[in-house]
């Protein structure tokens, strides 16, 4: 049975550049992140590291979980246009 779309965030640990960090995302975003990593033929941790590197370049960097959500929505937007 699929996870309901309004499920609370789920915390997972991911290694970024050799250190572990915990990220809380709703299951729908974990699913989207896994799909994006599969599409790019890269591990989820490598994709998260890429998103993290991009967010740090921002003038006002958001938190990592927020950056992942925004990146995923932006990617989906690009794919539908």
From TrEMBL:
InterPro entries (alphabetical): RHH_dom, RHH_sf
Keyword tRNA-binding: no
Keyword Transferase: yes
One Pfam family linked to the record: RHH_4
Keyword terms, alphabetized: Transferase
GO MF annotation: an example: transferase activity
Occurrences of domain Ribbon-helix-helix (ranges): 9-74
Name of the featured protein: Arylsulfate sulfotransferase
Species of the source: Erythrobacter longus
């Amino acid at each position: 049975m699929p996870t309901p779309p309004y499920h609370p965030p789920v915390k997972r640990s991911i290694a970024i550049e050799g250190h572990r960090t915990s990220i809380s995302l709703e299951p729908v975003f974990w699913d989207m992140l896994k799909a994006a990593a599969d599409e790019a033929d890269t591990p989820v941790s490598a994709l998260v590291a890429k998103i993290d590197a991009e967010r740090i370049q921002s003038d006002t960097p958001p938190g990592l979980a927020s950056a992942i959500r925004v990146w995923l929505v932006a990617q989906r937007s690009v794919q539908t246009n």
